Records
---
Amino acid sequence: MLLSCLFAWFDSFSGVTIKQWDSLKGGNKVVINREEEGYLVEINLNRECDPHAWRRYFNASDYRRLKTLGIGPDEIIVQLEGKSIQTQVARTTDFCSNYYAVFQVPIGGEYRLKVAGLRKDFMATRSTLEFPEINYELIIDTLVPGKLDYYVPHACYNSPYGGMRGYWVSNDTHFTYPAVSINQQCTGNNGKARRDVEGLQTNILINSDFKKDGNMLLLSAPTILAYAYKHTHI
């Protein structure tokens, strides 16, 4: 009975636009909606494309696979950051300018939305001799207005939009203002490793002590509803 009431409550809020950003750099647009499958982030790139560009790099069988997986010419990372920290690779609907990602929110609160392009022209999926260079292009990095409610209509199974096996959540957002720059020098490979991606910044401060101190945990399917019931009022 409790589950049926919860899902009925979820459905009453689906199909609602939370925020639309129309005046981004380059004429790009981003919108976040609350839909039946979860929080849907839609990205529209202001450009025209050759619908047959994939033929330069892939055969028909490859194309069918790319289409099934929603892999387009752009590698776009979408991050939802708050009490739950999640990252997804955006999927395409038209192999050109329209991309999307769907998020489940296992604990409500304030969230930031970050969308960034890493590679274009199928460089992330083409067979190349060298590791393809990342060309970081920030599309949006902003605080989502208000608070996102707990909403997990498809907890951990593979929905049509892709699935998750669990969620990192914390008792706090760990926001910091102003944003801090991410070091180019990494600790791996005896200090010789570098990110070589300029302009990386973050408003989320995390460290390895969070899990040890009990401030961050991984929610799996059996614990999501119990955790949400304890930490939300519905």
---
Amino acid sequence: MKDFYDLHHARSRLVHSIIVIGKEPVFIEDVEDENRKGQWKLYYTPLPGGDRRIIYFPHKTINLTPVPLGFVNVPKHKICCRAYRLPQRGWKIGLDQSNIIFRSVIKGGHIPKLLRSNALKNTIKNIYPSYIEARELVTEPEQSQAFSRNFAIHGSKLIHRFNDTVGEAKEKPELNSDHQFLKEALEKVA
């Protein structure tokens, strides 16, 4: 478990970032000293919002490992995008506006603010529609829908992690001959 030197250190690493407590992604609003050596009071709200809660750090349910990312479905816009953590030396342990970027599957596509959204919450919790459901949701060539962290459908194309077209989104997904090495990974999620 990560330890902090003092209140300033704890606040600089956690405030206004997303971490996981239990199995839920949460937004850390503030950190206070609890007047007990090495214990901090964390104020947080669950994603995408809600009532403010308190937990004392350290606590066995607080997870400070990197938050899992991947494709993010944005149902309102009928698109998906890819969430990346930027490889920068930063102050935050969790995700915040300065260390995450969202790239659209559609070149030049609009990406709404997603940091404190249900869309990002579902990605962190690995909640996606099935391949068949995703395929049914994509009804136009410029629409996209992810069915796992690493696979999405864009029009009739099967997209993999870095927006590479790796096959066709037919009744069953079909990989191109150059991408057969993804077969096992695709079978796990399709």
